[in-house]
Queue: 2 jobs
Job 1
Amino acid sequence: MSAENSTGGLDIVERYYQGYGSRARELKKQGKQIMGYLCAFTPVEIITAAGFVPFRIKGDVNEPITKADTEMETIVCPLVRSWFDMSLKGKYEFLDGIVIPHACDSISTTYNVWKNTLNLPYSHLINMPHSTDEPSLKFYKALLNTFRTSLSKFTSKEISDQSINQAIRLYNQNRAKVRELYELRKTSPPLISGAEVAKLLIVSVSIPVEEANQLIDSVIKEVKQRGAVPAAKPARIMVVGAEVDDVTFIDLIEDSGAWVVADDLCPGAREFFDDVDVTADPIDGIVERYLRKIKCGRTFREKKGDYEDYLEERFGHIGRFIKDFGVDGVVLYIYKYCDPYGFEVPAMKSYIESVGAPVLYLEDEYSMSTIGRLRTRIQAFLELIGSK
Amino acid sequence: MTEEKKPEERKKRRTATEAASKVGPMVKAALKENLRAKEEGRPIAYSFIFSGYDEIIRAMDIVPAWTENYAGVCGVKRDAQRFLEKAESENFSRSLCTYALCGLGFDSWREELGEMPPDPPWGGQARPTVMLGSGQIICDPRYKWYQAVQHYMPDVPVYVGGLPYPPYEDDYDYRDVQDYYVKYIVEELRDLVAFLEKHTDRKMDWDRLAEAVDISDRTWNMISEAYDLRKAVPCPMGTGDAMNTMVPMTFMMGTQEAYDFFKDLYDELKIKIANKEGVIPDEKYRLLWGGGLPSWFALTDFNYFNSKGAVFPAEVTYRLVEPVYELDLPKVSDPLEHLAWRWVKYWSYRHDKARKRPGSNPDVERLIEYIEDYKIDGVVMHEAFSCRSWHPGLIWQLNQLKRVYRDIPSLILESDIVDISSYNEADTRARIDAFIDTLEAVKSQ
Amino acid sequence: MKSQYFAGVDIGSTMTKVVIMDQATITSVIGPTGPEHRKLANRVMEEALAKANLSFDEITYVVATGYGRINVPFADKQITEISCHARGVGHLLPAARTVIDIGGQDSKGIKLKDGRAVDFVMNDKCAAGTGRFLEVTAEELGVSLEDMGRLSLEAKNRVEISNTCTVFAAQEVVARLSEGVALPDILAGLHEAIATRIYGMVRRLKIEREVALTGGGAKNIGLVKAMEAKLGFPALLPPEPLLTGAIGAALLGKDIVREAAEKGETLKVSERRLTEASIFT
């Protein structure tokens, strides 16, 4: 599906996706400071308020992991290993520092390796708790204040509440724009493909938020101007998983005769569908969003009520997406060695099936060597749901 | 038609100390006790070791069921495969922690049948009253495993509490943050008490808790002092034994029994040292087990090392204590606060030391300390594929050790904690042989 | 009323199967898939047409399936083996609710409902649950693949193979042999190991009776017995286990033609060329 006047947003997305990091490199030359980070749990509002451009470290499915193995164990999540491999290979040489949240084991237990091998001027682990009770919120707030103090020391500049509020506003705008973009996926057929959305979101976390906002605006405009698309009516698929920062898998599904119309992924709906509330102390709003609002397997929610209520609390948002986006089938796409999502599979699968959607569970390795195997399974799944 | 398979012929494992040899029967008895407790209607709590709540559970007369232990037992008895396979059939990935997979397989099977799986190792694991997870840094299974098994036991409540420790960072010192860490931990432990009071018929006995904490402090000291005796040449006790003695350290902490066990061990080691009795008569190489959980089904590998003249006077794994009198703990009256301080200070113990050596960090410092104190010739690490808590970082630690300290011979073994299909005995022994050759070559220089 | 003919082409990693049917199977051809045959699927097709005394133009619809399905340029449609085996078994063994297909280089489990696949699992990465495992170990032991199954049934004391990795298991097996362990006992252990692997995978589907075994593995009596031991009940076998995929493919072609006729739609067929698949397609 190609846009008619392709000198707009989608072109820029393609350029920044293929040359991931090129914009950050440009900005660095102009004197900006770039702060690398991992995962959607890093509070980018604080980093932006401190005057840095937050840069999401990304892997590459096409690049075999080699250098990383000299310092990092191969039993670590392959996504993290690819991120580390790319970093060691100098793809992100423009970084001034790295911020790593305590998201999951693979990310946090490798912190020492990241810190001590990349030798960046700044590194910080945000020791985010796994629970969402009141004491955990208070603890997380204290951690964020430590982080804020640390960043101020590094830049020799205080980070004012005002600058944080300003950053929060920009990021909330960003999230609203993504939600607006997702509305374009609800039509039959969707006006924008899953691959286009994936690339846009992946690119958007590698550039300053103001530029991301402009980019999303221009893509929405471009897409809305598209003429009617022939209605072949293939299946409408939702992809659920931890983090998918490479379009290869999305392409695979869409090349097999389906649209990817919805997701519960990072970068994806999980990362953009919840805003930071405006609070007197801006850190409170940030705490609430990252620890309580984002629904990810790494955050433990307490069970209140009976077990059905519990599954609804944890996975209900997936049910709503299935309904709102007219989803025909769900692909559960989880990497080998992923702890937070590996343990979720039976509960998640049973919930999704209980709301009437068929599920394909795929375990993958973040490499091109599995493409043929994945293709067969996806095709079989599409045949299965097609013959309903 | 096929008949019964030939029984596996395996050499029995040998331990160096009396103390260690007592442990097998202790575990068996404890598992039996749990089954009896279940029949008598006493509250049983699925628990993780080293999660800060040993003393709390003991003080409330709640029976802990150490699920990691049970998986270890299945591993030792080489009867874990069928449980791993059951978990896999439920769609749990084989790459997940095999303690958890074993437990998930066992429990889901037990719930399906409404009774223990056939021929369960040492009688099996009873259905719990509550399940106590932990949101610590130590590992993800500690808050995911029980949540996952709750899918098969939806009526059993799960508790997850935070128990973090300050990381070693350059941009701040742990003392800058210790106060809020301690405050958080105390609140979480208090919530745990409330949870236990709500979901069992037990009430906290605060005096008993203070006692249990006091015993565990003294036990920490006793363990440290006993293990320090292994600095002697020849070494009277190796890591093979320590993989047994970790049982009272982690499953019985806070009880008089645990303290007495280590007092006995201390006395035993003193006698061995006086008689110059080592693990092996001809001690040639002293090795440090620098990291990684052991392969529970292959503990005889330690005997193999012994047969080559190598002993392990020290290990990092399951040495989960430091002398309390060296931790610089503030005097507090609340036992929960004391536990919180002890936790934070334990994890920060070598921060100051690490700062004095450029490029070092607390893990590397610990390796250096043991190498010097225990007169170590070489370091062995074990990468267990299913565990992402203790194992990522070991390669870097070894590399860094050599960069900032000295180029010491090292060996990395690869297998798993419980999944025997990852283990190749011939390959492992070949690696050990090659390592011994290296040690010999270095020694003769 | 003129007869309509449908062809199913199943290019597996080890064997290529072609079936031509109208109401029932007219003819079938089974041959080994070498690297050449993947490119020369048309040759197998020609052989089948000759056997059936038909010209290519008389075939109404061709469906290709299997590992090499993209190398069949004359196929009108490519459908995965999952759907094809389901359709084939649904037709041949209507009582089956679960299909276990044991191939040369992969194995699959398929859940059926009303003759269609509703769920599936696959193992195409690890040789240990496939025919390859037996091939490798047969070579190590110096036993012909054909004899493996029969010999395994003569075991008195089945040996347990602890290594699930094919390479290590082969080493283990040789070691056992040199220790003097009886060959049938070792073979029984190998078959048990494969059955365990396959059963472990298929269990994810919540197995329902009846269970049908298909593929090359179903022709190995030792493996069939080992699988039945795991299942705890007898399995159903189609008359020719290697053909279920191709039969299913042909039948799916028939379904497509009939649906198009019912809806009054024109049938989309490929540009028919019985030539070699170019390497660059």
Job 2
Amino acid sequence: MNHPELTPLLLSLKVAALSTSIVFVSGLLIARFLTRRHFWGKHVLESFLLLPLVLPPTVVGFGLLLLFGKNGIIGKWLTEWFGVQVVFSLTGAVIASVVVSFPLMYQSAAAAFSGIDRRYEDAARTMGASEWRVFWTISFPLAWPGLLAGFVLSFARGLGEFGATLMLAGYIPGKTDTIPVAIYFAVEAGQMDKALFWVIMIVSLGMGTTMWLNWWSRRSVRRFANTK
Amino acid sequence: MLYVDMQKRLPDGVLHARFSAKDEIVVLFGPSGAGKTTMLNCVAGLTNPDAGLIRLGDTVFFDSDSKKALPPQQRNVGYLFQDYALFPHMTVEQNIRYGLKKGTNLRLAELLASVGIDRLLDKYPHQLSGGQKQRVALVRALATEPDILLLDEPLSALDADTRRQCQDELLRLHEMWRIPFLLVTHDLQEAERLGSVILVVQNGQVLPHGPRRSSESSFHAGTAHESS
Amino acid sequence: MQKQLTAILAALCMMWAAGCGAQTSDQQTAPQQPSAKPAETTLMVSAAASLTDALNELKTAFEREHPGVVISYNFGSSGKLASQIEQGAPADVFLSASKQDMDRLEEKQLIVTDTRVDFAKNELVLISSASSPLALSSFEELGDDAVKHLAVGEPTTVPAGRYAKETLEHLKMWDNLSDKLVFASDVRQVLTYVESGNAEAGIVYASDAAISPKVKVIAAAEPEWHNPIDYPAAVIAASRQADTARMFLAFVTSDKGKAIFKQYGFHE
């Protein structure tokens, strides 16, 4: 990756990988936590978690800029305590990706976990399994098809994220120009060859990954595919 | 010895139960919705009564006065669920081994052979017949070496012949294990065949049906039914 | 007897309804026009986004003087608008914020050459947030460490960014500042970055700075530091309403038009 022209590829891969990992783990843990619990205001909380799906990406970006910017509540705290700058950096791009793809993972995971018959988990408990063991050996494997679907969705969304990223991370060639950003500016400048190059790149990347994930998932799920 | 004295509000009214059992088969007999499964769940710890005391031997499972509620993992209770709740993503062997205690002296091979499922170890639950599933679930529950076995309508999904066979097996197993069996059924014939003590659960009351073989247990009629 | 009464009643209702309708449309027709309905022309004007506020006011003034003509605006960045026109998008007039984009269309013979006219000028200014504690006072001081991020429009696509680059290159600061530069996709974004304090400074047109109360102008670029910021306008060759289009351009370049632009921070 010494060729400076290829930085968008490297940046997109980094951002997508980081954001998908964060979203996968946090999405499934929060979904699992909320699934069996019912409390006043739960629907409000869930609607809030899904908000980035409904809002236009530029609005999400603007909101993130207010929160994580140099004068933002979270941004200031991060800079003072950890010396981390979010705005105009790759960190900002990752945060933007995380925020817009989280709802997709959460929805998939919540649906997957609530679809598990509670009795499997109860049976495991009566056999002495700790809550962690119940989660790891029963809930997680049984929810896996739904979790994988969420993974694929959030990866795709994170890879293609543009509006919020542009706002929060800005366009700094070589530093925050992910593939979608590079495509946008290439088109704007009339550099169609360059734009086409990156379009082919991102299509290959996206399609390749989702195809591989689906193939791999079908293999690992085949065992108990006939149940239910 | 199991001692139960509990009250719990159900959708149809309030359930009061007070009974004790030594190592015999106690049948809870009554129509659906009466609260029989709820009582099993309270003994197992999967749900808790509104008030009362549940004790097995010297171990207090639940005591509303001292606000103590032992989690199901620590009660050493075996539970055979109504639809068996065999883990669909594990083989028969993995299912049975799930709750095995470390350093156990349990002679698993004997247990499996006595019930006739030693040749099914590599199969998945979806590949088993109803009767086979029932036996696997039974062995799985007993493999944890429980102090008490709870059975929720274990035979209702089986045809008449298989049912008789399984009833014989249950009686035989009880001879071997000598722990209290708490069995729920809505079939009077089955109740009379299996239970040395029969408790009728109806309208929120738990009443004796007439002592059969053992007179060591004692039970009290429930208090008056409160309308919801 | 009853049937007849119902029929008469129904007929009366219908006539009443028709009468109401006719009356309304009569009232809507301009008093001076005796004919049934005036021929309405819609003029499609593609204009650079930085002209939005000025042009909206201009539209009201123009339509008042020329009833029967309705202006329909399509705002965007000059580069994108030029691309649209190249691809055949329907536009009668093009008001650009950059000479290059108009030249592009002229080369391809997409405009009526003799209608091309420069209708406004702009100034390039350095801004910072109104509440900024920085002691910045000139372009030359941008190299200071206190300025961590400088927001400008992306040079190849945003005209204001192009002029910013010319200015900084003239001052021999472009390369030194490369670490601090943040490119925005449009001027609105530059303003947002500066208003929120995320960019300590930014470079925009004087007209853009004028519309935001949250930024203050620190310095103006000397005209010789960059190419003249002229706003060219022209009638599109494919327009089917060339006469109305010329009328509009005449208004834009009239004294009335110039006064409106001046109000919004543009220069003659």
